[in-house]
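Data availability excerpt. The first of two example chains:
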Amino acid sequence: MYWKKITIETIPDSLDALETLLWNLGAVSVTLTDSEDKPIFETATGENPLWSNVDVCGLFEQDVDHEQLEGQIRESGYKVLFTEELGDRRWELEWLSRFHPMQFGRHLWVVPDGQTVEDPDAVVVDLDPGLAFGTGTHATTRLCLEWLDSQELSGKRVIDYGSGSGILGIAALRLGADKVWAVDNNPQALNATRDNGLKNNVGHKLSVCSPDALDLDGADFDGADVVIANILAQPLIELSGLLVSLLKKDGDLLLSGIMVSQQSWVESAYAGKVSFVHQRHDDGWTCLQARK
């Protein structure tokens, strides 16, 4: 089957109405891209920001009258950029064309669904990120995965705060951690983490929850051995008190998602609470290891 893709330019305030219009016109999928290629680095906790100008792509079955569709979209006040015909593909798996098995450190591998690695010593995380952030392709995640591979995690309890796809918490479990709490305020991320936990046979050791539902098994919990937060500088600063409070004495705190220029800013927010013991850099990003 061939498909018709119609790309429309809009702004965030008009996005919901445009999405509703496309679904009502029979779209089989609706996707968003940045029309100006401007990255978003800093967000407040709980926010889901959009670019100032958004290209919205509606995918329709081949037999639709695209001229009529374009007319209806324009009549609703939107600017149609272009229409194109696409060949048949499994669009829900299109991300796999850009995601291949990747090694982190000596033993840890992240492998997309349906692929394998031949390394007999590989510790494999089988991953389908779904709609959540985290495949290991970004420097901030790579730095955390490499650190995890270098640690002795057997029997340890880990909190992954801002878990995304669950990649870091699941990697910790595959490397020997005894228990992981994966925390995220995005329901799509929580669903992806649960699914990936079951896929990797670690679901029984994985607790998945939103920040306000975090339950640390009662009063006998004296803190996690490891707390990981791969977020961004501003939320890391805002959450400094909470993240340190979740950590046991002599436990390790791993902070990632920090641009090199922001490192001192983040460190100052944790001054007097932890001691920074190591740092890693990759592609302009910093990952900080601290100890309580």
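And the second chain:
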Amino acid sequence: MASVALFLHHRHAEAVELARDATAWLLERGHEVRLLPGDAEHAGLDGRACSAEHLTAGLDVAVSLGGDGTMLRAVDLVAGDDVPVIGVNLGHLGYLAEVEPQHLCDTLSRFFAGDYHVQERMRLTVEVSTASGPTAERRAYPALNEAVLSKTPTGQIVRVDVGVDGERFTTYAADGIIVATPTGSTAYAWSAGGPIVAPDHAALLITPVAPHMLFDRSLVLPPTASIRLEVAADRAAALSVDGRSLGLLQVGDVVTCTAASSPARVVTFEPRGFLAILKAKFGLNDAGATGRRERDDRVDVRGDA
């Protein structure tokens, strides 16, 4: 008997259907099903509710029913206990969720039979030290994609003092600073002009967002690096981790990003290379074919002349 946790995207009606069908299928075969209380209530599976504190105890696999965002939530909760995650894709083509909904039960059968692979992906530990207020506070958050210090809704740029391994690097004046993993290199960091790094690499990326300075390039650092971001000058900065807003940091507050001790463990079943995903995601096959046709047309015209 296996223990399976299900995570739902609450705005996908199909996720509720899948959760109910998968739960019935698993229970018929003697497996245990667990859902977080909010997910269990949303799916009408209150009898399967399990607190976050007990969710991963003896857990064999987590199943994400949504898209990459739901995968991030699942990974955050289970990766520290080395639980593998199966991603069922209910949205657009995702980098993490690869299983199609109609194949979920077959996929679970393959997992229980040992017919799968696990891809490990580097994660971040994002530690926040706040000096503002009556007492200092220190908190830590996990991230699979990135941590972002960005300007507040007032629209003013942020100034962030950046240091690496205890050595001061420079002060960025920008709309934001992104510290990303290779997995996160195809998310916000890519939108800001950062490099795309294959997810089986281990590295830390620093990418400025719309920098107001001459130096506007990304940095790719080794996975052993410790990156320190301190809010500078006279204005606050907004902190988000994997798209979750964590509020405002004041001048003197510090964010430290390091590689997490436990990687994400993503279950894969079919060979799906990273380059193939990129080509599908960005329509590179069609672009290439169009380019070839255009080149062929030009050759034909020159030949007729």
